[in-house]
Design a protein that fits this description.
Strand order of the largest sheet: 2-1-3
Helix content: 25-40%
Radius of gyration: 18 Å
Largest sheet: 3 strands, parallel
Strand content: 5-15%
């Protein structure tokens, strides 16, 4: 990055010299409706990656989500969770895991929102919430053993019988 960690069209020459019109291709209504994608300047990153012949959307990447279960039949997650090669360790559908999965991989379909890596595949590893079968080390190992290249862990562990918590 350049100029105090800015990453915008005016500084795009750091890698690919993309124009504002190349960036605007990715600023769809789904994109513009989300704070997160704009905050990380995903459109600029997509444009630079596309100009350099790289995948812009996580195609072929499995992301393990160690969390509560995920609503696997959610309309914006069906593409990301339907791969026959994924073995979801998931027996609950709870809000937090579904929300995290949407931020990562919600389908880009001109409706609602899309994830930052909207062509990636999600591997749901249920370790938190109701009837959670696995703890975090086991769940993370499961995700990696089943092809995850990225593992998300956006949860807090609270030590038993104390008020001390460690945010992970």
């Amino acid at each position: 990055t350049q100029n105090n960690n800015s990453f915008g069209a005016s500084n795009a020459n750091w890698n690919g010299d993309v124009s504002e019109s190349e960036i605007n291709v990715y600023r769809t209504s789904e994109y513009n409706g989300q704070f997160g994608l704009k905050a990380i300047k995903a459109a600029e990153a997509y444009a630079v990656l596309a100009k350099n012949g790289k995948s812009i959307a996580g195609s072929g990447v499995i992301v393990g989500i160690t969390d509560t279960g995920i609503q696997l039949d959610h309309f914006d997650l069906q593409a990301a969770t339907s791969s026959s090669s994924l073995h979801h360790y998931n027996n609950a559908s709870e809000a937090h895991g579904t929300h995290v999965a949407g931020i990562i991989a919600a389908t880009k379909n001109n409706s609602g929102m899309h994830g930052v890596a909207f062509q990636s595949n999600i591997l749901s590893v249920h370790i938190l919430g109701n009837n959670a079968p696995n703890g975090s080390p086991t769940g993370m190992k499961y995700a990696v053993d089943n092809g995850a290249k990225v593992v998300n862990a956006s949860w807090i562990y609270v030590y038993p019988n104390t008020s001390l918590g460690v945010q992970v």
